[in-house]
Design goal:
The chain is an alpha/beta fold. The protein has a single domain, classed as Glutaredoxin (3-Layer(aba) Sandwich). The chain is built from 5 helices and 7 strands; from the N terminus they run H-E-E-E-H-E-H-E-H-E-E-H. The strands form 2 sheets. A 5-stranded mixed beta sheet has the order 5-4-3-6-7, sandwiched between helices. The relative contact order is 0.24.
């Protein structure tokens, strides 16, 4: 698990590599209620009742396709969380690679997007246009990024089946091979 100093160091390195521009103004409710927007996205998967180990983010987000992503509970499967926003150009470039990896990983590694600091209509529209088919949680206020001490997008969080955060990648993933390698190194899953 990464300590606070490690996360801070990663955050500093990420400032150089990602989107740090201020997002567009996020519309107020009810426009930003994930349940109020129709989408073809799958729901977030069920999670185990087991509580994640100490140090896991104690955050919960509604998912655009239904369900909830509760980071305080173990996912039960190795999981890749990819944080992105529609206003972030590097995120837009990375998401097709995340989708390709999700297709390849199948049930061996869960892939969940986390739309951060954005609006629900923008996120669902972009997800449909980009052909994203993995579950997407909605974090309109950027709580997860703040919890991890990051102010850059995109970034990818690797979560073990027990809910422990094993690695935070605060930079754009440039290829599916790179993501496969990160998953092998930080989640112990060979694809």
């Amino acid at each position: 698990m990464i300590g606070r100093r490690g996360i801070a160091a990663l955050g500093l390195a990420a400032l150089i590599a990602g989107c740090t521009a201020e997002p567009e103004t996020v519309p107020s409710a009810p426009e930003n209620d994930p349940a109020a927007v129709a989408t073809d996205l799958p729901p977030c998967p069920e999670q185990e009742d087991a509580v994640a180990p100490a140090g896991a983010p104690d955050l919960s987000f509604d998912c655009l396709g239904g369900g909830t992503l509760d980071l305080a509970h173990a996912p039960g499967s190795p999981t890749v969380l990819n944080l992105w926003a529609t206003w972030c150009a590097p995120c837009r470039e990375e998401l097709p690679l995340i989708q390709q990896f999700a297709d390849e990983a199948g049930d061996r590694v869960r892939v969940i997007g986390v739309n951060s600091q954005d609006g629900v209509p923008q996120a669902t529209s972009f997800a449909a246009d980009a052909g994203l088919g993995f579950p997407i949680a909605y974090d309109g206020d950027g709580e997860l990024a703040a919890e991890l001490g990051l102010n850059v997008l995109p970034f990818t969080v690797f979560v073990a089946a027990d809910g422990s955060v094993t690695h935070v990648q605060p930079a754009v993933v440039r290829s599916v091979d790179e993501l496969r390698s990160l998953v092998a190194q930080h989640l112990g899953v060979q694809l």
